[in-house]
Amino acid sequence: MSDKSTNENLRFRDGILAGLPIVIGYLPIAVAYGILAKSTGVTLFHSFAFSAFVYAGASQFMALNMIAIGAGVGEIVVTTLLVNLRHFIMSASLASGLKRELSKYFPIIAFGVTDEVFSVLSIKEGEKSKEFIFGLQAAAYTAWVGGTMIGYIAGGLLPAMLAGSMVIALYGMFAALLVSAIKKSHKLAVYAAASGTINALLSYIGIMSKGWNMVAAIIIVAAVGAFIPEGKEVTADE
Amino acid sequence: MNNMLLIIAGMVLVTYIPRLLPFLLLSRLKLNTRAKRFLNLIPYTALGALIMPGFLTAIPESPLAAVLGLSFAIVYAWYKNSLIVSVLGSVVVAFLVTLAGNMI
Asked: Which residues from A are below 8 Å from B53, CB to CB?
C-alpha cells in the first residue's frame, strides 16, 4: 500500500516537472493579464474568477478588450465560444488516447485542457497516469491563476523588455515538442508545416477570425492525412 | 457589477463544454481506423498552427528576436532532449537579441 502511494507521488511529481516549461511560459502572460485586467477596471475578485474558472488565456484577453470597448455579454460569450472551439478537437484527440479506467476523472481532466497541456500530454510517450496528468495540470493552473494575482497586485515590477522576451517561451515549447516528435517520424514535419502554412495563408487573407483560421488549418490537414495510406506517406517523404 | 458575473458565467460554460463533450462522447464511441488516424494527427497539425504564424508577432518590437529564439529551441531540441532548456534558451536568446537591438 505504501509502495503504491510512493509510486503515485512520484508520478505526480513527474507531472509537475513536465509542467515546468508551461509554468515559465504562463507566468509572464498571466502577469500581463493581471496588469491589463486592473487597468481595464476589473476588480481583483473578478480577475481571479476569470483566470480560476474560465481558465483560457486567449479568450480572457479578448474579453478584456471587449469589456473595454463596452461590448455586451452575448457578443463576448459567442466570441469566446469561437475562440475556444479548437479545444473541442484537442479534447477529442486526447480522450481517444486515454485509458477508460480514467473516465471518472474526465470532468476534471477536461477542465485543464489548454493548448499547452494538450501539447505536452499528446507528445508524451507511454502510459499517461492520472497522477501525471493531475501534476501537469496543477502546475499549469497554479502558474496561470497565481500569475494573474501577482500581475494585479504587484504588476509593473517585471522589467518590460524581459516580459516581452518571455512571451517567446510558449512558442519555444511548442517548437521543441514538435521537433521531438519529428525526430521519431520525419513525415510529421510535413503535416505540421502544411497546417502552419494554411493558418498563415488564412490569416493573410483575413476573412475569418484567428480562432477559426486555426480550427480550419488543424482539421483540413489532419483530415487529408487520415485519407493518405500509411505506406505511401513513407515513400513520399524520402 | 452583475454584468461582469454574467460574462464570467457565460464564458465558463462556453469554454468548459467544448473541452468536456469529446471526453464524454468518445468514451462511448467505437472509432474506425480513419477517424483514429485523424485524431492521432491532430497534435501535429495543432502544433503547426499554434506556432505559425503567431510567433512572428510574439515580440512586436523585434520579430528577429522571435525568429532566433525559436530557432534556438528547434536546434537544441533536435540534438538534446530537454524541453526546459529549449524553453529557457529561447527566452535568453530573444532577450539578448532585443537588448542588442535596443543598443544599436
From this structure: 196, 199-200, 203-204
Average pLDDT over residues B39-56: 89
pLDDT recorded at residue B14? 95
Residues of A in contact with B32 (CB under 8 A): none
Q: Which residues of chain A fall below pLDDT 50?
A: 232-238
Window 28-67 of A: residues touching B by CB (8 A cutoff) are 42-43, 46, 49-50, 53-56, 59-60, 63, 67
* pLDDT for B50 beyond 80: yes
Query: Given this model, what pLDDT does residue A137 score?
Result: 97
Contact assignment for A218 to B45 by CB distance below 8 Å:
yes
| Grid cell digits, residue A236 | 513520399
- Which residues have a Cβ under 8 Å from the Cβ of B58 and sit 6 or more positions away? A167, A168, A171, B66
Question: What residue spans define the domains of chain A?
Answer: 2-166, 185-238
Interface probe with A: pick from B13, B51, B78, most Cβ of A within 10 Å: B51
Chain A (127-156) residues lying within 8 Å, Cβ to Cβ, of chain B:
none
Q: What is the ipTM of this complex?
A: 0.89
Residues in chain B: 104
> Rg of chain A's alpha carbons, rounded to an integer?
19
Task: Say yes or no for a CB contact (<8 Å) between A118 and B43.
Answer: yes
Contact A177, B47 (CB under 8 A): yes
Q: Which of A90, A93, A96 is nearest to A113 (CA)?
A: A90
Phi, psi of A138 (to 5 degrees): -65, -40
Query: Does the pLDDT of residue B81 top 70, yes or no?
Result: yes
Euclidean distance between CA atoms B104 and B85, whole angstroms: 28
